[in-house]
Design brief:
The protein is of the alpha/beta class. It is 41% helix and 20% strand. The protein is globular and about 75 Å long. It binds zinc ion. Zinc ion is lined by residues 255, 266, 268, 270, 273, 275.
Length: 433
């Protein structure tokens, strides 16, 4: 899927100053978050001069990235016609998102305003050679583009959310313990197979960015996203920018010590880590032990029901009033709340968003997690933190991955960091005359 190139067009980040790219991003994000905005209001929101707004808005209008629609009746001038409203054109650009989980991968297409236009999940055998997995992922990407029915030249690139440790600068999955992958150059392989700029990061980090740009955290300046399934991890977004840490390891909340002595052995080699207490695997294991002790309980009956994933059966037993299950979940929520209190003391975010099993069981877990988090955080910090659940549901991973691509290749206008021939990545995302 080679992209058109032209000698008189290039990525804005290559030809214009960093300041211009920064100003463009400010305008695009303001338009995204405000929906419909006048030029005057854009200048107020971004702090840019009227001349800068006029020039950049004209550039975006010519290329169909924004459209003029309606008039600002509330904030118009006292005399004359109300100013024209500007909006992003959702179908002007798209990104492809790939979420790689343990035994599953999902591909989706997301438009410029964060709407999911196609979503295709697949399972795979984790023992399969990684090159075969990536070939299957590329095939699923092509199927997702077909399903979305979009013109390939409107795709800004591919974002990949991988599990474990990811070198985002080079697109390498350095270590995925649950898949036994080491130093896999996902970005290089996928970008060559698809002929599209590709960015790779940790999957939870992508989900955090999606919440900050398109999700419940749109109005925040600092946000932590905490996701739990087989593993437990976090992503931090400060001022709409991901914080990755000096070696791409920021956010390993799952390995925060919660039981300092006598805790269970974690796969990281330490003991008493949060992950050994609140992962889906551990909660299900604890519930199965309870069911063995109480074979006539609601929990035992639910666990024998094969229709749903085991964690959903545990949640179902609690919702049906099984007291032992409720006590188990309260205890796990207490551990999670303790970890979040520690996170708040370190980071002091505006908002914490929960995903994965914490979102699936939010009716049971959110209240006790919040109670412990607020009680154990320093001073009154915890009371000021807005604790939320992701609104993306099972699509959080694909949304996160696609947001990585939109943010990198469109909002930030960065060139593909990988080894693609330049002709393949020279498509004009925003064409500067
Ligand atoms: Zn650990």
């Amino acid at each position: 899927m080679a992209r058109p190139s032209g000698s008189d067009s290039s990525l804005v980040g290559r030809r214009t100053s960093t300041i211009k790219a920064h100003n463009l991003r400010a305008i695009l994000l303001a338009l995204l978050h405000q929906r419909a905005t006048s030029r005057v209001r854009l200048a107020q929101l971004t702090g840019l001069s009227n001349t800068a707004i006029t020039n950049l808005v004209d550039l975006l209008l010519v290329q169909g990235i924004i459209v003029e629609e309606g008039r600002d009746q509330q904030n118009g001038a006292s005399t004359g016609r109300p100013p024209t409203l500007l909006q992003l054109a959702p179908s002007s650009r798209y990104a492809l998102g790939v979420h790689i989980g343990i035994g599953t991968f999902r591909a989706g297409v997301v438009d410029l305003t964060g709407q999911l236009c196609a979503y295709l999940p697949r399972t795979f055998d984790p023992a399969m050679p990684v090159t075969d997995v990536l070939t299957q992922i590329a095939a699923l990407c092509r199927a997702a583009i077909d399903e979305a029915g979009i013109a390939p030249e409107r795709l800004v690139g591919i974002g990949v959310g991988a599990s474990g440790l990811v070198d985002a600068e080079h697109g390498i999955n350095v270590l995925s313990p649950n898949l036994a992958w080491r130093d896999v150059p996902i970005g290089d392989i996928l970008s060559r197979q698809m002929g599209l700029p590709t960015v790779v990061d940790n999957n939870v980090r992508g989900m955090a960015l999606a919440e900050a740009i398109f999700g419940v955290g749109r109005a925040t300046t600092s946000l932590a996203f905490v996701y739990g399934r087989v593993g437990v991890g976090a992503g931090f977004v400060i001022g709409n920018t991901l914080y990755r840490g000096s070696a791409f390891v920021a956010g390993e909340i799952g390995h925060m010590t919660i039981i300092p002595a006598g805790g269970a052995l974690c796969h990281c080699g330490n003991t008493g880590c949060l992950e050994t207490l609140v992962s889906e695997t551990e909660i299900v294991r604890q519930a199965e032990m309870l069911a063995v002790r109480m074979p006539d309980s609601i929990l035992a009956a639910q666990l024998a029901e094969p229709m749903q994933p085991p964690i959903e059966r545990v949640f179902a037993a609690a919702r049906m009033g099984d007291q032992e299950t409720l006590a188990l979940l309260n205890e796990r929520a207490h551990y999670m709340g303790t970890a979040l209190a520690n996170l708040i003391n370190l980071m002091n975010p505006d908002m914490i968003v929960l995903g994965g099993l914490f979102a699936a069981g939010h009716d049971l877990l959110l209240s006790p997690i919040a109670e412990t988090m607020r009680r154990r955080s320093f001073a009154n910090l915890g009371r000021a933190v807005d604790l939320r659940v992701t609104g993306f549901g099972p699509h959080a991973g694909v949304m996160g991955a696609a947001t990585l691509a939109l943010d990198t290749f469109f909002f930030r206008q960065q060139p593909c960091p990988l080894g693609l021939p330049s002709a393949d990545v020279a498509a004009p995302l925003v064409q500067v005359p």
